[in-house]
Each structure stands twice: as C-alpha cells, then as structure tokens.
Amino acid sequence: MGPSAASAALDVIGHDDLAAARRVVSQESRALARLAEGLTERFVDATALLAATRGRIVLSGMGKSGHIANKIAATFASTGAPALFVHPAEASHGDLGMIARDDTLLMLSNSGETPELADLVTYATRFHIPLVAIVGRAPSTLADAATVALVLPDEPEAGTLGLAPTTSTIMMLALGDALAVALLERKGLTAEDFKLYHPGGKLGRRLVRVADIMHEGDALPLVAADMAMSEALIVMTAKRLGCIGAIDGDGALLGIVTDGDLRRHMDANLLRRPVSEIMTGHPVTVPATALGAEAVHLMNERQITSLFVMEAGRPVGIVHIHDCLRAGLA
C-alpha cells in the first residue's frame, strides 16, 4: 500500500471513529432527555427520604453500577450529606455491620436482579432501613423491595453490540447528581458551607473570602484626615502596603493615599500639607464577606493594587493584590 492509500485508509478510520463517538454521545443525550422528562413525584419522595436520614446514606451496587454508586457517594459527601459506599460482596462478609438503623440505603442495579445485592436487601428489610433503588427494570426484585424505586427509561446501551453498560450508567450518574443537588438546595447549603468540604485545590481557592486573607488590627494603615503628610508617610512606610486610609473622628473612611497620589502632588509643600488635601476621596472598597476572586476582579478592573475592607461603614481590613497571589486567586 502506497503512502497516499495508507493516508486515505487512516482518514476513513478516523471518520468512522468520529461517527461512532457522535452516535454514542447523541444516544446518551437522548436518554438523559427522556430521564428528565420522565421524573415524577417518586423523585421528590426519594429526596425527602434521603433528607430525613439521621445517619448516613449508604450506597451500593455491583460492577459498573458499583463504580457509579461510589462516585455518587463522593458527591453526596462533598455537598453536605454524609455518605459512604459499601461493596455488596464485602457486605456479605462482615461489612453489613457498617450500616446502622439510622442510615438509608441507596442501591443501583440496571437489571434489578443483581444476586450480590440480596443480602443487603434482606438486611434492610429485617432492620426496617429505608431503601431507595435506582433500577432499569420494574417490576424486579430490587424495585419491589425498595421503599422508593426510581426506574430508568428503557433505553438501549450505546454501540453496535448494545451490551456494555453505557447509557444506563450515564443515566444513573445523572440521577445521582440530581438527588445530590436537590438535597443541597433543600438544605440551603451556602458557598461558605461548601468551602468546608472543599478546602483544597482550585475550588477551595475560589471560595476563599476577603476576610480570610485581609490585613487587620494593627496592620491597618489608617491615619486621621487632618494629619500632616510628614507623619502620614511614616505610617505608610511602616505598614508596607503602599497606601494609607484617611478616616474621620468616627472612624469612617474618607479617602486613600497611594504612591500615585504622592507623585501627582509632589512639590516642596507636600510634607506640610494635610492628608485630606492629597487623598483620593470615595475610594473603591469591598465588603468582608466578598469572595477573594471578586476582589481580584475589582482590582484588575480599576487598575489598583489594594482595597479597604468595609464592615458597617468602617474599614476593618485591607487586602493587597499580593495577598491574593499568595492565596492562589490571581
């Protein structure tokens, strides 16, 4: 086969690969659309059952369903719903003891007849532990035993063989995500709550608040607005933040003096003039509750390097762009 023929053959193979990929994604997309359209009050019942759990949500499944169940358990845990995965085979050899009467079981099985789940179903029945099932078929042993059964739409698996768990597992994953988000919103979880479960990595950095990284107390570069610049510059140099804030007798922020203000007012009388004549009034500020990412955006937008942090109309801190860099925000 010559070079041109080989190239043409590779082009055909590449085209077939893309066609297969698009077919799979389209097929799974249609299945997810059917899943969304077919949701009923059973989903609400399942969410209520999980929300009422005093213990933990215990997930289980065998094979590919087990992998999906493991991921759903991680999603629950990361969104404030204590959860763990118990392998059904291990459950039959002692791990049933990990499941308490205050827990709720969430079990996944496309067929609803997975034999490895039998001991878990029996255990749940014996001790009256609520059971939510995500199944592909009803009636089935698992669906019939469940307190609430969420039945997936009857959609074929992707691919020419239609045998490997693909469409069914993507629907299970989506349904698990839906339950986790419904629980999160039902509980009113805030970004601050979410940060507690994600302190590390990029997500944790995105949720850092200004109050977490600001300078406060004695580190604040604040002076009286009527102070002479000769004294104010000593404070500005000592605090090493490149600026000072001017306040009135009640502690309200009136303005800010930066290196740029000093250059603009540089003359023989600069040191004798009061801060109020040099400062820029009505400076850009940020509330202590703002996310650090918001502060970075504001500094970039206004082309400034520091922001005073306000609470109840008074400066309680200051954040510098370098603080944001150290926190991984910029």
What does this entry look like structurally?
Helix 1 packs across helix 7 and helix 2 crosses helix 7. It is elongated, with a radius of gyration of 30 Å. The strands form three sheets. Strands 2-1-3-4-5 form a five-stranded parallel beta sheet. Strands 6-7-8-9 form a four-stranded mixed beta sheet. It has two domains: 187 residues, 3-Layer(aba) Sandwich (Rossmann fold); 117 residues, Roll (CBS-domain), CATH 3.10.580.10. It starts with a helix and ends with a helix. A hairpin with a 5-residue loop joins strand 7 and strand 8. Helix content is 47%, strand content 17%. With 330 residues, the protein is an alpha/beta fold. The longest helix has 35 residues.
Question: Which features characterize this protein?
Answer:
5-stranded parallel β-sheet; about 325 residues; Rossmann fold; 15 helices; 2 domains; 4-stranded mixed β-sheet; about 15% strand; 12 strands; CBS-domain; alpha/beta
